[in-house]
Fold:
Amino acid sequence: MSKTDALRALREARYAQRSQRETKPVIAPTAQPPAKPARVSADAPVVEVVEVDREPEAALCGHRAISGRTCTREHGHAAKSHRYS
Structure:
């Protein structure tokens, strides 16, 4: 069997597999309806969320190199080059 004959046979086998796969009926799984959220009773305690003031962290430049590394200098740095890590 020559190389071209082997390639032709392989192509025909793949075509046969694909055509069998396409003709088989696909049975969709039965979807369960989403669970309803539980109701909150009037007796339930109310929790308040309090934001804590934090000192703003020094924002980094974030410039991405081609290699995927990011610049670790401060945001808006005056240096022409980036420092990657």
Remarks:
- The chain is about 25% helix and 0% strand.
- The mean pLDDT is 78.
- The CA atoms of residues 29 and 35 lie 17 Å apart.
